[in-house]
Specification:
alpha/beta, 3-stranded parallel sheet, globular
Length: 79
Amino acid sequence: MRALVTGGSYGIGAATCLRLAGDALARGEAAKIVVTATGARPDLAELIGQLKSMGADALAVTGDLADRDFPLQLVDEAV
């Protein structure tokens, strides 16, 4: 399973990431999850650690989706 979760460092986004990783783990798979946030946040680093402890291949990418160059950077880093 591969997923890109924008705004995933807390709240519903973080819960989505954890659910995806848990579902993949239950199927004996490792989720590949890219999480975006607008800035480096302590909760983002903590989430990435949690996802990795669940066997997920997790990557944090920080930036603002309103910045016209960021979506391309995001795809480059995620793929």
